[in-house]
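Need a sequence for this fold. Nothing fancy.
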């Protein structure tokens, strides 16, 4: 699994995106709480409660919107 750290303009960590070997991605906020999931096979993003957010990878917007 690989991890991408997202930072704001002042280089403060605002979240993380973890990518599994199969391409599934999980977004976490700065406190490591899950905020969403991305499934590359269906090309959909879902929130922490598995409700559809939209098509494409929208994980960064879920983190930045918090």
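Here you go.
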């Amino acid at each position: 699994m690989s991890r991408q750290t997202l930072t704001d303009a002042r280089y403060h960590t605002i979240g993380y995106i973890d990518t599994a070997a199969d391409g599934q991605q999980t977004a976490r906020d700065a406190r490591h709480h899950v905020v969403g999931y991305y499934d590359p096979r269906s090309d959909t993003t879902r929130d922490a409660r598995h409700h559809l957010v939209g098509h494409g990878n929208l994980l960064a917007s879920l983190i930045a919107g918090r």
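For context: The mean pLDDT is 96.
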